[in-house]
Each structure stands twice: as C-alpha cells, then as structure tokens.
Amino acid sequence: MNGSSGRLVVGLAVILAVAWGPSPAASVRAAPASSITVFAAASLTEAFTVLGKVFEERVPLRVAFNFAGSQQLALQIEQGAQVDVFASADQRWMKYLQQRGLTLGTPREFARNRLVIIIPRSNPGKITQLQDLARPGLKFVIEADAVPAGRYIREALAKLSRAPGYGPDFAQRVLKNVVSEEDNVKAVVAKVQLGEADAGAVYRTDVTQAVADKIASIDIPDPYNVIASYPIAIVKGGNTGGVQFAAMILSRLGQQVLWGYNFLPAVQR
Amino acid sequence: MLAAEFTKQLGSFHLEASVTAAPGSTLVLVGESGAGKTTILNVLAGLIHPDRGTIRLDATTYFASDLGVTVPAGARSIGYVFQDYALFPHLSVFENVAFGLRAQGIRGPAVRSRVRESLGGLGILALAERRPAGLSGGQQQRVAIARALVLQPRLLLLDEPLSALDLRTRTEVRTELRRLLQALPCVTLFVTHSPLEAMVFGDKISVVEQGRISQVGTRDELLQEPRSRYVAELMGLNLFQGRVIARDSGGLADVETGEGTLRIVHAEAAAEIFVAVDPRDITLHLVAPTGTAQNVFHGPIAQIVPEPPFGERVRVLLSTRPPLVAEVTAHAVHSLGLREGLPVYATFKATATRAYG
Amino acid sequence: MPNRVPRRVGVATVFAVVAGAAFLGFLVLPMLGLLIRIPPGELLARLKNPLIVQALRLSVVTSLASAVAVFVLGLPLAYLLAMRAFPGKRLLEVLIDLPMVLPPTVAGVGLLLAFGRAGLAGRAAAAVGITIPFTTLAVVLAQMFVAGPFLINSARAGFEEVDPAYLRAAATLRASPGYAFFRVVLPMSLPSLIGGAAMTWARALGEFGATITFAGNLPGRTQTMPLAVYEALQSDLDAAIALSVILLVVSFSLLLALRSARITRPRVG
Question: Which residues of chain A have a CB within 8 Å of the CB of C234?
Fold first, then answer.
C-alpha cells in the first residue's frame, strides 16, 4: 500500500491497541480482579490445588498458585510480588512478613503437620528403625535450615538426642550423614523417590498417593516429633477475592479436604 | 628413476597418466588449468591414491594396485613445493625448514646444521629467524624450496613455483631456479601452464590435456613433431592433420585437412599425416601474390597479437581455410596497414611445411 | 575557510548507536545494581566467612577442572567433526548441541537417571562401591555436561579454519597425523580454542540447575557459589547480594585475564 494509507492503518491500530489492550498497572488493584494469586508452602501442593478448583467453581475468580519453600515465598512477597494470600508452613516466616507490615489482620492457623522419615521402597540403606539414621555412610537428604521443614527436622533430631536409646550425639551423627540440603520438601521427595537418597525428612502429608508406591515411611514418635503450625494471612495490597479464599480454607470444607490429605486439624477454631 | 603409470577417477574427471623421469633430470608437466597436472603431482606425492596402477621410485614401490601396496605420503622420499608455498605462518623460517626433520624425530645439532646448510645453499641464511609473513614472494619461494630439499628427497615436486611471483621477480628467479634444479641429483617434476617455462626448465616435457598425456618429448621433439593442436599451439606452430589425396612426381603432395588443402613436400607413403608450418614462414600480402609459393590462402585477419616482451614480433591470426597463424614484425604490420577484419593473402612454400606420420 | 561537506548521519547509524547503547545499558545495569548495594568494606568482611570461602573455592576448582576435562576429552571429537565426513555426522552434531538448549534442571534429571545409583551407568559404578550423586565429582560432571558443547563447537570452528594446504604440506614433510595436529593445527587454531575455553569455563562457573539436581546442595562438598547465592536468597537478601558481587568480581577478573592473554592468529604474508 502507498505511504499515506499505510500510516493511517498503523495509526488506527495503535489507537485500538491502547483502548482495548491491557491497561498500565495503576488500575489493576482498584477494579474488581478476575483472578487471585496464592503463595503456599510446597507441602500444601496437592490439597490446595484441589481446593483451588472448588473455589473457582463457587466464585467467579481464577486462582493462580505458587508452591515453594515458605522462606522463598516470604522473600518474594517482601520484594513486592503481587500476592493476595500467603499460607506458610511455619509461624516464623509469617511473623517475618507481619513485622514488615506486609500482612492484613491477624494470621490464623489453618492446619498442622507432622514430620516423617521416608525411604525408598527398595530400601538401599537397609533402614528398619530411626536409630539407623545415625549409621555412618548413610545418605540422608533434608531441607536447608531456612526452610520450615529444615528447621523442624533439626528440632526433632535434637529432641531424639535426649530420648533414651538414641544417645546424646544422635543429632550430630545423623547430621553428618546429610548429603544435600534442598530448598523445599518436594525436592527431598524427588531424591528419595529416585532412589538416590537412603532417607529423607518431609511431612506426613508429602507421602501422597502418587509417590506411595516408591516410598515407605518411618514415623517419628509423637513426644519427639515436631508439630508444624500452618498460618494463613491476607497479604497487604491484595483484593477481596483473597479474603474469600482464606475464608474457604478455614471453613469446614477446607478443613475436611486438608484432613483428607493427612493434615492435622488446626488447634484454634 | 621414477616410473609411474596410473588411472584416477575424480567425479567426472578421468585421469590416466604415465610418467617416467631419470634422476638428475627435470620433467615438466605442462597444460591448461584443470588438465590434471597438479593431480598427477598429488598422486605421486601420495596425497591422493590412484584407482589402479603402479608408482615406483628407484627400487621402492610406492603404489601397486595389483599387490595392494600403498605407501602414505609421510613415508615417501619426496619434497613438495606448493603453488602458494604453504609456509607455516606460526613458525620462523628456520623452524619451517626444520619441520620435516623434526617430524622424523631428528633432534638438536643435526637439525641445526642441516637447516643452516639448506638455507645457506639458497642464500637465505639471514632470514632464519624471520616469519614467513614478512618475506617477499621470492624469499618465500626459496624457503619453500629449502624446506623441501633439506629432506634430501629422491623425488622433488614443484607445483607452478613461479606463478605466485610478480612478472619482474619471475624473470629474475627463472634463471637461478633453472641452475639450481639442474644441479640436483633427484628426479624433479615441474608443473606449469606456461610454454616458456616448459621450454626453459624441461629436459623433457610432458603435455597434459584433459586428464591424458598427449605427448612426451624433449623441446626439440615437440617443436619438430607436435602431435596435437594444443602442443603445436604451445610450441607456437601451425599444425594440421589430414589425408594425402594426390601426389606428383616432383615429390609434392596434396593434403586434405577437412578445413582446406595444403601443398606439401612429402616423401613417405603414409596416407594419414601431420603437417606443421612455422608462423615465421608465412608471408602476408594485400593483393594476390605472384611468387612461387604453392600454398596461397585468402581471408580476413581475426586478431593481431604482439608477442611479449616488447611486441617486436607480432602474431597475426587469420580466418582462412584452414585457419593460420603468421608471425611478422611490428614494422610489417605498420607498413602493410594490417588491422582486424582486413582481408589478406597468406602464402607459404611447400618446403616450409614439415610432414610426419 | 575550508569547505566542509556536511556529513549526513544515516538512519542506520542512528539506530545502531541507540540500539547498541540501550543493549549495553541493559547488560550493565544489573551488575551496577549489585555493585552499588554493598559497600566494599562489608564485602571484604563477608569474604572472611568460611562458608563463603568454601563455596568460592569449590566453584573455582570445579569449574577449572571441568574446563580442563572438556578440553582434553572434547578436542579429539572436535577434530573428527572438523576433518571427516561420516554417516550420522549430522546426528552427532545435534546431540552435541542438545546440552546447550536443554534446561539445566532437565539436564540434572538426565544425569541422575544415567549416573545415579539406580542409573543406566551408575548402577555398574555402584556395584563397585562408587556413587556419583552428592559428590564433588557430580558437580564437575554437571558442569562438563552443560558447558562441553561450547568448547567442542568453538574448537571445531577453529580447526576448520586451518587451511587444508598446511595439512597437505605437513604430510609431505613426513609428519604423522598426530604430529601435524600438535604442531600445525593446534597452534594455528589457538585463538579459537582459548576463546572456547573461556566460554566453557564461564558457563561451568555459573552452572546451577543441573548441579543442584544432580549433585545436591551441601556446603563444602557441592555448594558452589551459584547454589550458595540461591540459598542465601531464601533467608538473607544482603548476604545473597554480597555473594553475587564476589562471584561477579571473580568472573570479571578471570575473563579479563583470559582475553588479555589472547594470542593473535598467525597471519600469512
């Protein structure tokens, strides 16, 4: 086409694009949104995915999840990620955001969890009881200290060192067997599933149906186990859809689904 | 003594060659580009292996297809001077020349003395520490020759050694190189496309035409009895091939060439013959001549070509039947007013022809 | 007054300058962002941290080891590709390119499946008591896998640039193929080889995804600088930034040294 009509078409296209295209960020939060973003601890992957679908059926909103170690999510929220709801696997990282004024209202505990030791079904490490974890040369994979589960397992090991039949240096010997510190529970599950690790420490809820045929678990007795407390909160700057989501998690429906996935019920109700 | 006979198919190009040369002599392979001369060198060097044939140098067999013998290039007693010399740019002149010695595992003082001797023999000892990049064409050529000769090869191969040089250097180098090659005890093979170089360097000349050797002989043999138009052109002769169709009692004969009839002096009985006519024996006239020359042809001038170096001699190409090349002086061109397209008469005597079977 | 012909600056030149400046800015800004955050004093203080020293040393040692290993093992392959045609050559070329386009984590999973305890080749090694995952060797292998193709391709290009006439000359000068390689091809392609080695080393130094998946994350044994930065990011942003700057400075210095030592290609007259 010749010069002048070409220019006209281009000009028209630009006008249309500006009028109907995505608007700059300024108006996103003010207008009613069509989706919400939920940052949740990796251990909540299966349960929250199901609850997300239920939510989408009841409310005209789409739910986008980001599952990762709670420490990673908290840092991302601090750096300004656009998030509506934060569900953490420990109080520590929730408090971290609270102290920085990044949460709205009071966080509520919505579930609890227990730790468990997992081993590959083929049991290459020949582990039959918890004491075997201290055997030299064993390949034990846990989470890094910053990850909630990483802090919990170190606490549990310290508790076991004070228990009869384990020896006061139990924690020390077990930690010597650590060959890798992952950044979330699912990575630990993967390494055990592949048979590369002799044992790993994750939540009871991480032994899902999907991995049950590859993984066996060894319980940590309750007195020495750590009960993880999972709080949920609205993130500052989030929209009302987030409030609805959090409400659903705390409702009977949400609690029943979590219970179905082997989470322990929240203490406060 | 080099005795080689082989065939090689390269794509659609078929090469069939027979090469014989005596030690201390230089055999020139002359021909157009693409005729196969360099291929012959590469086969003799062992860089390519022929499909069938034999290659023998003195008592050593380098290749024998019927016996399954194939000696790789590195094991042949050869020296190869490449067309653009292929001097290793990252090595000094000394190290370039030393390369072949070191590759054989020779070390230390033996290398030094042999290299220095070789460089000295070519007058380039002063260049020993220089890099090839800074040398002139003539100097690079000497390095290349030194590098080949230091190995004391029994077969020396040179691929157009003068073509990379500018005209003036070429003339200077030609005589010197000829002297050098004449003093060598090895068999020397020299490839060129220049008939002049062929005649200067060749104790024997082998003419390569489209993958075949059309003629082998000394310069004089080629001059006297060229056996193909190309060879004749090479030697600067007019050559015709034809059948004797009539003979008279005086020893004259008529030869029908298919492009015209010639009158020659012919003694033998052979019917199919070559006829050579030296361009200098052809005279040009503007009007019909009255002399006794038995061969008279009429036709326009196709081209006028002054001969290098100074154009004192001029070649005149005629579109006569048969086509002729005459050689006249520049003076004659001027006084006759010769120019392209001008119809002229060309004559030569029967005695100026040379006929052979 | 001499008559000056006004120089018309063409559209192409303007575009080139603007685009070039923009892209340069794009590359430099993140590095500047890192450098500005940390005062040099704090940087030096952190350098004294044994964990950092450990990670730095591990990074430098493993990346150099993998660069050398790739150099030694990869050159013959590069030479073969440069010199010969053979059936399946194209397939081989694609296979060699693959690690460059594969997401590093995928590469890590692949390495596990090949060299892990239960892996294709790994199980043979395990039978004689050698396990590869979670070791420093695994770090080197992960780096070799992702960085190797860079060297092979640069070396090949370097070899191909060597005029075959020189190889023919070498052959007529009694050189065996090996002698010709070391005395002619290698010296003449040295600039390309050094450039390739630099790229390979740089890629190895920055390798993360395959390392964390295949070798795991353990300070002192497998926690290279990129992994240390990643872990620090999850709990202490300032520490992460400091580590990043250290890595940046080390990389910059080493690359500068390599490029300054660059040998100019020998030229024919």
Answer: 69, 71-72, 75, 144, 146-147, 183
